[in-house]
User: Which sequence fits this backbone?
């Protein structure tokens, strides 16, 4: 009679060998798609639900001129220290959807189909997160750069969120919708004015212009953060003792401008005001342990700023499966 213990051991040994055998090429799985999972991430701010929605990224072939007031080698070293690419460098785009007071509110909109070919993922990610563009109640805009307002209207002119009330900063409207300022701008600087008109002119009578400092939706308040553009604003979201600040472009790439708030990115229209605003907001965030959403931070674009030397250290949120 055979030994049952020895027989079981032989079966287990054979099974173990099978586990570690080379995969059969005929049966090995291959990914159904070369893409990533949908780019959305959800969490709570008190009783408010926030969902980050990614709209892809853009690339910059050279670091030359990316930061106005420091040598390009310093910029390269800062990106390398954060293990980020430098040739080309990349910039992600991530908006926020806020569900508050029974309303679905967008904070900025991405590009729709108006951006570079590496963008345009926003609607796919928005729908994957369970949202319907027809049921968006309100859109709050920080400023009028194309990656923040382009998603309101498709390239063919179609409104993407036809039932949404749109709110924009009054000083931002006054600047970009001014014929006088557009005519005074150099030819190369008129694209932003023209895009603002493409997006807003057909619906101008229905666009709400808010004064910085106003509460715009339940728990969402605007705050002046001028410098990046003349009327740039940020939004604070507060509920049940929890708070988050949606930074727009007051602070961008954390490895560069959280770490070095006195560096001046080429896209700030007023360098001095931009630096002052950036440091003021980061000091506030560090002092109050305030969670931030940074539009051009690595996805899901939310975290904290902790003081470090003359600047700050970016601390991304820990991923959490619970909402």
Assistant:
């Amino acid at each position: 009679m055979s030994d049952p213990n020895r027989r079981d051991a032989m079966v287990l040994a054979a099974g173990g060998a099978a586990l570690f055998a080379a995969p059969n090429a005929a049966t090995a799985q291959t990914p159904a798609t070369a893409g990533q999972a949908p780019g959305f991430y959800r969490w709570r701010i008190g009783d408010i639900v926030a969902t980050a929605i990614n709209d892809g990224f853009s690339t910059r072939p050279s670091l030359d001129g990316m930061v106005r007031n420091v040598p390009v080698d310093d910029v390269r070293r800062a990106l390398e220290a954060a293990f980020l690419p430098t040739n080309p460098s990349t910039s992600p785009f991530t908006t926020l959807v806020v569900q508050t007071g029974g309303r679905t509110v967008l904070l900025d909109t991405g590009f729709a189909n108006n951006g570079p070919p590496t963008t345009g993922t926003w609607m796919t990610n928005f729908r994957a997160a369970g949202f319907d563009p027809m049921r968006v109640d309100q859109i709050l805009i920080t400023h009028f750069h194309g990656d923040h307002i382009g998603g309101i209207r498709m390239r063919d002119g179609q409104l993407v969120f036809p039932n949404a009330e749109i709110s924009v900063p009054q000083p931002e409207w006054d600047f970009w919708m001014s014929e006088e300022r557009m005519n005074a701008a150099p030819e190369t600087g008129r694209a932003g004015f023209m895009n603002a008109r493409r997006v807003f002119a057909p619906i101008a009578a229905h666009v709400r212009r808010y004064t910085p400092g106003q509460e715009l939706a339940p728990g969402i308040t605007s705050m002046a953060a001028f410098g990046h553009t003349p009327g740039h604003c940020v939004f604070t979201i507060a509920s049940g003792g929890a708070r988050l600040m949606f930074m727009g472009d007051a602070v961008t790439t954390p490895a560069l401008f959280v770490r070095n708030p006195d560096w001046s990115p080429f896209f700030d229209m007023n360098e001095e005001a931009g630096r002052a605003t950036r440091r003021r907001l980061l000091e506030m965030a560090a002092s109050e342990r305030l969670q931030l959403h940074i539009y051009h931070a690595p996805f899901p674009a939310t975290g904290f700023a902790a003081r470090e030397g003359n600047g700050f250290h970016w601390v991304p949120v820990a991923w959490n499966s619970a909402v």
